[in-house]
C-alpha cells in the first residue's frame, strides 16, 4: 500500500478472507459433476467401504488409519494410559468422541456408540480393529483396554499378548465392528 502520510504498520489490519461452501442437499441449482468410468467408481467405492466404517448414528472412521496408529505404538511397557491411547487412535481415524469415560473398564457403551458390538471372546482369531476391555479388579481399579492392530494387541504399549494381568479373577469383554462380523 502506498500512503501519503506516516502510517504505523502494526495498526493496519487486513480483512480476513473467509471461504464459505454451501452444499445443497436437494440437488437444486447444483451443477452435476461429469460421470466417471463406472468400473473405476465402483472399485473406489468398494475399496473405501472396506477401510471406512459407518455406524447407524452417522459415525464414520477409517479402520486402516486406526490400526496404522496402533502399529506406530512401540513402547514395551505401560504408561497406565491405555484408554487415552485407544481414544486418540479412534479419533485420529475419524471417530467423533465427545464425552468419554476415564476408566478403561467403562468404555463399553462408548464403543457401542461407534458401531462396535459385544461378541464372544475371540482371542484366537482377532480381526483388525477388535477391542477388548478388562473389568476392574482388586489390584487394577481402572481396568484395561486394548485393540488389535492386525499383528499385535496394543494399548498404550505393544503387548506380548492379550493377557496383561496375572490374576485369575479377570473378566474380559470383547468388541468387534459390525462391518467385520
Structure commentary:
This is Peptidase C51 domain-containing protein. Residues 36-47 have a biased composition (Low complexity). Helix content is 23%, strand content 15%. It is an alpha+beta fold. It has one domain (38-180): endopeptidase fold (from Nostoc punctiforme). The strands form two sheets. A five-stranded antiparallel β-sheet has the order 3-7-4-5-6. Strands 1-2 form a two-stranded antiparallel sheet. The longest helix has 14 residues, at 38-51.
Number of domains: 1
CATH topology: endopeptidase fold (from Nostoc punctiforme)
| Strand proportion | 5-15%
Largest sheet: 5 strands, antiparallel
Give the assembly state of these chains. Answer: single chain
CATH homologous superfamily name?
endopeptidase domain like (from Nostoc punctiforme)
SSE topology string? HEEHHHEEEEE
Backbone structural class: alpha+beta
- According to DSSP, the number of beta strands is 7
Helix content: 10-25%
Low confidence ranges: 9-18, 26-50
Rounded radius of gyration (Å): 23 Å
Can you tell me the CATH class? Alpha Beta
Mean pLDDT: 78
Q: Give the overall silhouette.
A: globular
Q: Architecture in CATH? A: Alpha-Beta Complex
Strand order of the largest sheet: 3-7-4-5-6
Number of helices: 4
End-to-end separation in angstroms reads: 64 Å
Amino acid at each position: 500500500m502506498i500512503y501519503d502520510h506516516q502510517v504505523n504498520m502494526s495498526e493496519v489490519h487486513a480483512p480476513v478472507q473467509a471461504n464459505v461452501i454451501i452444499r445443497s442437499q436437494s440437488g437444486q441449482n447444483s451443477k452435476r459433476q461429469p460421470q466417471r468410468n463406472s468400473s473405476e467408481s465402483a472399485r473406489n467405492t468398494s475399496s473405501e467401504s472396506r477401510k471406512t466404517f459407518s455406524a447407524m448414528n452417522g459415525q464414520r472412521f477409517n479402520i486402516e488409519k486406526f490400526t496404522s496408529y496402533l502399529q506406530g505404538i512401540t513402547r514395551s511397557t505401560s504408561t497406565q494410559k491405555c484408554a487415552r491411547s485407544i481414544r486418540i487412535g479412534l479419533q485420529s481415524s475419524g471417530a467423533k468422541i465427545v464425552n468419554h469415560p476415564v476408566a478403561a473398564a467403562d468404555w463399553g457403551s462408548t464403543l457401542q456408540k461407534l458401531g462396535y458390538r459385544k461378541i464372544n471372546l475371540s482371542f484366537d482369531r482377532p480381526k483388525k480393529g477388535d477391542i477388548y476391555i478388562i473389568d476392574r479388579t482388586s489390584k487394577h481399579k481402572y481396568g484395561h483396554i486394548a485393540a488389535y492392530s492386525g499383528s499385535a494387541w496394543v494399548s498404550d504399549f505393544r503387548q506380548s499378548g492379550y493377557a496383561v494381568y496375572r490374576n485369575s479373577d479377570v473378566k474380559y469383554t470383547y468388541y468387534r465392528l459390525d462391518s467385520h462380523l
